[in-house]
Amino acid sequence: MRTYDFSPLWRSTIGFDRLFDLAETAHRAGEDNYPPYNIERLAEDRYQISLAVAGFAPSDIAITAEQNVVTIEGSKPEKAEGDFLYRGISTRNFKRQFSLADHVEVKSAAFDNGLLKIELVREIPEAMKPRRIAINGVPADKVQKLEAKAA
To answer: What is the pLDDT of residues 50-68, one digit of tens each?
Structure first.
């Protein structure tokens, strides 16, 4: 097990708090891997998180998006459904959090064949997209806008 001491960086950096918090959260998140999930890049600015939630109904799952975090919680009431000889399908309660980059938003969620699929899109505000600056003496109508490409 590795631990990282960020205190020297805290003394000499400003505004990187979130980066250090993400590193610590990622280190702690590796301990629990239930439910299993995939993260896919569908296009340059589109992503999808797929969680395997067998045994859960859509009403048993809550998705919350706030600031730069999306949280998926699943809770299933414990019922004595039968006398199991072996129980390999886990339906325990879970809480999974994903940190999102700036301007990444949850667009939709769907439940398909035991998979919860969450669509994410990065939408950069117009004010933050690159633009060409006019130089003195060049008419403004000859200035072209650069194609916006997300970082």
So the answer is: 999 988 999 999 999 998 8
Least confident of 6-15, 77-86, 107-116, 130-139: 6-15
Backbone angles phi, psi at 28, to 5 degrees: -75, -30
Task: Point out the least confidently predicted range of 14-28, 40-54, 57-71, 122-136.
Answer: 14-28
Count CA atoms within 13 Å of residue 64 on its CB side. Answer: 8
- In the block, residue with structure tokens 């004010």: 127
Cα Dmax for the chain: 84
The pTM for the full model equals: 0.67
Distance CA 135, CA 138 (A): 6
DSSP strands (E only) in 5-90: 37-43, 46-52, 61-66, 69-74
Query: Over the range 79-93, which residues count as b (16 or more CB within 10 Å of their CB) and which as e?
Result: eeeeeeeeeeeebee
